[in-house]
From TrEMBL, chains A, B:
Family, as annotated: Belongs to the inositol monophosphatase superfamily.
Gene3D superfamilies listed in its UniProt record: 3.40.190.80, Fructose-1,6-Bisphosphatase, subunit A, domain 1
UniProt cofactor(s): Mg(2+)
Protein name per the record: Inositol-1-monophosphatase
Keyword hit for Secreted: no
Superkingdom of source: Eukaryota
Gene Ontology annotations of biological process type: inositol biosynthetic process; phosphatidylinositol phosphate biosynthetic process; signal transduction
EC number: 3.1.3.25
InterPro entries, per database record: IMPase, Inositol_monoP_metal-BS, Inositol_monophosphatase-like, Inositol_monophosphatase_CS
Amino acid sequence: MASNEPLDLDEVYAFASQLGKDAGKILDDGWRRRAQGGGQAEHVEKESAVDIVTQTDEDVEAFVKTKISKRFPSHHFIGEETYSKGSSKDYLIGDEPTWCVDPLDGTVNYIHIFPMFCVSIAFILNGEPVIGIINTPFMNHTFSACRGRGAWLNETQQLPLVRNPIPPLPETAPKGCVFACEWGKDRRDLADGNLQRKVESFVNMAAEIGGRDGKGGMVHGVRSLGSATLDLAYCAMGAVDIWWEGGCWEWDVAAGICLLKEAGGLVTTANPPEDPATARIDDAKLGGRLYLAIRPAGDSTRETGRQSQERTVREVWRRVRHLDYARPGA
Amino acid sequence: MASNEPLDLDEVYAFASQLGKDAGKILDDGWRRRAQGGGQAEHVEKESAVDIVTQTDEDVEAFVKTKISKRFPSHHFIGEETYSKGSSKDYLIGDEPTWCVDPLDGTVNYIHIFPMFCVSIAFILNGEPVIGIINTPFMNHTFSACRGRGAWLNETQQLPLVRNPIPPLPETAPKGCVFACEWGKDRRDLADGNLQRKVESFVNMAAEIGGRDGKGGMVHGVRSLGSATLDLAYCAMGAVDIWWEGGCWEWDVAAGICLLKEAGGLVTTANPPEDPATARIDDAKLGGRLYLAIRPAGDSTRETGRQSQERTVREVWRRVRHLDYARPGA
């Protein structure tokens, strides 16, 4: 396809869906081979013990990149593996058609054959993810979305799952909400480091109403899956009400953000503004490394779904700390 | 079957397996009906906003109880719903054949249609769980185990998944381990309450080596699924290396403990003894409400699998706080 040819989004969507299944199959074969062969995956240390990359990871990225470059030679490609081996992590997504791929999200999970691993494929136009495909081979779930065509589980069940009508956020949110969060890789024991700020925020969200000097949120449940992509996919399902995280990269979230937005969710920044009660709620920047996602919400008699989402954003911002994640050099 | 008739464990196992699938189907129908019908599940508050029981929960327990009493009229039955509605939570499991059932483990998950919910069925002889069946309808996974017959995923894949050979625990454990833990329902903001002790323990396990006054464990990942049963099932798979939790009841853990033990895992108490380095490592009491589970482990050149499990138990005990959970009146 020449670069000036008009883009048929349905064609790209069908291609991406099949690509997700084929890539998921490679991940599936990988863990089964390890299960038969015994032992842990061969792995090399990157930055720390928590940051391990497997051969399968690289194989899947090479497979996906080759397939895309054959079918759409003019498209740009950004993959987690090739990208993170480079010297910088500049934000490189512009207006041109770009594929942004995490061949294996939940690498730690994959090494341990903990079910929450997936391949995540996004197609981006004018800086916006317009197609998102997530395939979780261990659970045999495919999540897919394309701009204007809705978000789907296994191509048949539209998201969010509960949709006739879609429930509003609880009036008492974050009370009554499932809160997803991740411990991440930054485990430095600093007095006011990211780990301490995260934990302080988690405890605020979890503690009883009235506790923590009025910051207690009494969420219904706190969940940590070890996959940003699946946190977002479950948020699009409506299973996670609130996801709050810092430190991800664009390949971790591009497909999930597409999915969540097509389902009717909201994504803004994780870091609370100066005045959480009145600040404008802007869409999260794809490369901003800070994300607060709220599930799709329907209207109630008192407010629109969007109003209940924004109310929830402000209640989260009131309870969480500022995280210190930036792009290198930024 | 008369009570003095000899017990055919294979027959009971086959019956329990089918029962798990049938009960899982009711859970599956339940969430699908809610997805179609809209809105949240009808629910009534029990002890707090985090403790919600759905009608489906009671339906599944009634179904399971009826099936068991028809097939094995002399067997005892303890189910979460009937039990927790009573005035006391005395430990009632004796030497006689007893079924211990959680019709819906992960109730919060189920309300939100977060995938980690399941039915958990255990059959207990002489106080020991000898059959365990766990069915997770959203993910279509069945875990099953019977004394002397191994532990299985979907009846075809023996557990742990990696088994030729089964890997030993890492030499640096808990570093390199997946650590599963739950925030639970006790969210009181007390200076030294269970919530604070849990969080302190989680952070010790997560923080870098050398951090937290030498207690930093730098686990590979921290995971919270919201289901004790699935934490144990994933531990039997080998996906979770360490699960540490207080506050569960016997119906939450009976099937999972059977599964884990058949797979080769270890379960002892969550609460560290006075001298973690030398204390005897006894099996957890089924009704003890405090559990530390370690995945199946193979021998290495330096130590047996059991030795590496015990070494890991001691390293966890060194990093966790004493939790305050007892049976009412105990």
